[in-house]
Amino acid sequence: MDRRKINLAFIRLEHFLEQCEKLKRPNPPSLPTPEMAKNIRDELVFLLDNVQEITCDDVPSVLEVLTNARKNDIPGIHKYSDKALEEFLIARSNFIRRADINSFNGFDTPPTVKPTSIKPKEISNVTEWRQKDERERMETRLNNNPNITDLSDMNRPTKVAEKFNSLYDNQWTDAFEDLRKLYKHEINGQERAILEMAIILKKAFEYTEETAEKQTRKIAMSMKELMISPTGDSFINNELASQHKHVDIDPLCEVRFTRYAKQCIKENAELSLPVLHKNFEWLLRRERIRDILTIPSVKSYSQKCLQIAWFMNVQDPPMSLLWPVDVKRGDITTTFRFFTRNGTILQHEVWPALLLTSDGPMMTKGVAQFK
């Protein structure tokens, strides 16, 4: 490892801390992104490994700034940024002061490498910080990556996208034709039919989204309770119940329980459908569109909406629907194809675009009526 790399790490870290310090000023620069904070954290780890003059004890505020930057915690960055920059400049000056200045400028001599005999306190601080950092990385890895496809899963995102397209081409079209006939004497009968079917899809997605979140919490909680008390005896009396409440749970265990709960729900999603269908039908009958549910094609459409929306929301992370009102005007024609009239100005929504995740790539385009 040469001193050029050390010098570049110092430069990048200093620039980052200066940007954080400037966030307090009027017209501040843009907030450092979590990805930027992660990269700078790696630079700091490199310096801690390779520069004898820098330890975790020397730069505690720098560690706080990096941690808060990764969380987008602006007040936390403000609290430590001044002190962090001061600590950094002192640590860097100590390194340069002990170095041969001429060699340092020429990047010729090897860097000062930390000895193997490190003070116990330093080992503790470095270990604690790195364990915390590794825990954050592991939490990220434990969450399923939607870009990794299990081809044996018949309800994987690509299959759900196919079913979603089929829903629009078949059940939606059948219901639309029947509703258009029902409203044929109304001036805006076609638009009314389209918007009423959009209401059904939105309600289905909201209902299954809420249900999936509740089910995940309940299953994760049940697993945690059973792991804390394998025999179930902790609830027999108040003393044991009190002990149960004060058990210290590693946050990583909480992440695992949530992940296992999501996996269980996804792999057994079909088991929930009968009750979900019944509850959703009852929910729709409380809406103003309840009268059209007696039409067979509309009822079939609503049932299919519920099923596919459920499969969307049991993904980890869940898939997402994007409606025209949520898209910038300049981007709408790239996200939605036209229904019967082309144009650049939205008249009304027809069918949403489907995203892999809330901020992920688009799986299928939506449909909108333009003018």
Automatic annotation (TrEMBL):
Query: Which InterPro entries does UniProt cross-reference here?
Result: MIEAP_C (IPR031981)
Domain of life, per lineage: Eukaryota
Residue ranges of domain Mitochondria-eating protein C-terminal in the record:
156-368
Q: Which Pfam families match?
A: MIEAP
Please state what the protein is called: Mitochondria-eating protein C-terminal domain-containing protein
